[in-house]
């Protein structure tokens, strides 16, 4: 039996995924820019599929409209931006973000969850192999020593959040020994990477997942046996497990309250937020325009951001735009809460959106907002086939 439910659907999902996450693949020795190449292929697929467009669910249209309007406001703010260099690159990024919204609406004509799950398993498997190679050769230091970090290689935070997404997708599969090994490998590597944000966001997302999925869990002898086995394994081999899995993990970094004063990362971001909020108070209505966050934070026209999309949107566009950004996610979570409780595939995608939303407000910028938008659009696209099409 083929791994692919539909090879052409898999290709459409794959090339869309490559387009969005091509920035993390710049280190590959490919003679042509991967973003441009995947953009051209995605455009060709749009032209092929544009003859017939499957409409969105009525409740999802406002979300798509809000993202589009928000992006257009960003671009229009070029008229008064105090930035020139950073504004140019950010404008291009915003256009690519808008393309991220358009592609799935036109191209996806049937359910894509099976193909997406397969793709995430492939990505997860390749990442596990590569990261274990680095771990066994004592090369994880490259993620934490700026002098050793290879140019264009994804940071440990980028790798960590994708590992978290792969872990969540594995919850769509029945627990077998190889799925268990896959999940444990991801958790092991996450702690070795030392990404505080991805791990905390994964824990929060899993709490929501298990809470919404609670009605599907049944306590029987198999569940009791599994829980008992886990308890006695930890009781008997706890010290060995800790020595093997966590001996190199700095748990002090995970204590945000205790590490705050000594952690350079937290102090820098805290300072950024303080400067950003001060700028919002000084320019509350329209902000200072696209790309201005670099000027605000560094006093120079460079690429920089406050690591919080809500604050960034207010810095560059004003308070109303910040509320517009928040409304995208408020609408999404409120309107899709019910269907996510009823359908496990939709719940997986719902939790991935939550995972990336949390990461956006801890580490990211609107330059790469499409890494979050893609999951919203996967959800909206899949919803058309899970609950029927509204006229």
Please summarize what this structure is:
With 391 residues, the protein is mainly alpha-helical.
Structure description:
The chain has 16 helices and no strands. With 391 residues, it is an all-alpha fold. It has one domain (8-387). The chain crosses the membrane at residues 9-28, 34-51, 63-83, 89-106, 118-136, 156-179, 186-212, 224-245, 279-297, 317-334. Residues 186-326 form the O-antigen ligase-related domain. It comes from Chryseobacterium culicis.
Secondary structure: elements and pairs:
Layout lengths: L6 H15 L12 H16 L11 H16 L8 H23 L5 H24 L19 H15 L6 H17 L2 H17 L8 H26 L9 H4 L4 H19 L9 H7 L10 H9 L1 H24 L1 H17 L9 H17 L5
Helix pairs in contact: 1-2, 3-4, 3-14, 4-16, 5-6, 5-7, 6-7, 6-8, 6-15, 8-15, 11-13, 13-14, 14-15, 15-16
Query: Strand-residue fraction?
Result: under 5%
Assign a percent range to the helix content.
55-70%
DSSP helical segment count: 16
Structural domains: how many: 1
Gap between N and C termini: 37 Å
Structural shape: globular
Number of strands: 0
Largest sheet: none
**Helix/strand/pairing category:** mainly alpha
What Rg is obtained from the alpha carbons, in whole angstroms? 22 Å
Give the averaged pLDDT, no decimals: 86
**Uncertain spans:** none
């Amino acid at each position: 039996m083929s791994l692919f439910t539909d090879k052409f659907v898999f290709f459409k999902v794959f090339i869309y995924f490559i387009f969005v996450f091509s920035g993390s693949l710049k280190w590959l020795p490919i003679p042509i820019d991967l973003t441009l190449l995947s953009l051209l292929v995605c455009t060709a697929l749009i032209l092929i599929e544009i003859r017939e467009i499957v409409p969105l669910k009525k409740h999802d249209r406002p979300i798509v409209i809000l993202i589009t309007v928000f992006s257009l406001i960003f671009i229009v703010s070029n008229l008064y931006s105090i930035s020139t260099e950073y504004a140019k690159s950010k404008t291009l990024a915003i256009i690519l973000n808008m393309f991220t919204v358009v592609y799935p609406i036109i191209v996806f004509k049937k359910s894509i969850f099976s193909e997406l799950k397969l793709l995430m398993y492939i990505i997860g498997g390749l990442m596990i192999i590569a990261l274990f190679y680095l771990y066994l050769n004592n090369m994880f230091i490259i993620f934490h020593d700026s002098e050793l970090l290879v140019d264009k290689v994804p940071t440990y935070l980028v790798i960590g959040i994708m590992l978290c997404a792969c872990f969540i997708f594995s919850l769509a599969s029945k627990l077998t020994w190889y799925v268990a090994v896959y999940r444990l490998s991801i958790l092991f590597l996450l702690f070795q990477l030392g990404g505080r944000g991805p791990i905390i966001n994964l824990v929060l997302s899993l709490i929501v997942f298990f809470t919404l999925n609670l009605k599907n869990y049944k306590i029987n002898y198999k569940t009791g046996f599994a829980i008992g086995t886990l308890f006695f394994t930890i009781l008997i081999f706890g010290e060995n497990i800790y020595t093997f899995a966590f001996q190199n993990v700095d748990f002090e970094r995970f204590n945000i309250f205790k590490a705050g004063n000594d952690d350079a990362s937290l102090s820098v971001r805290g300072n950024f937020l303080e400067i950003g909020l001060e700028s919002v108070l000084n320019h509350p209505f329209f902000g200072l325009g696209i790309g201005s966050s670099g000027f605000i934070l560094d006093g120079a026209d460079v690429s920089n951001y406050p690591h919080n999309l809500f604050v960034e949107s207010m810095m560059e566009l004003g308070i109303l735009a910040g509320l517009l950004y928040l409304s995208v996610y408020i609408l999404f979570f409120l309107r899709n809460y019910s269907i996510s409780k009823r359908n496990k595939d939709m719940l997986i995608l719902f939790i991935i959106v939550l995972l990336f939303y949390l990461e956006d407000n801890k580490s990211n910028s609107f330059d790469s907002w499409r890494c979050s938008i893609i999951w919203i659009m996967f959800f909206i696209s899949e919803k058309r086939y899970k609950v029927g099409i509204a006229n």
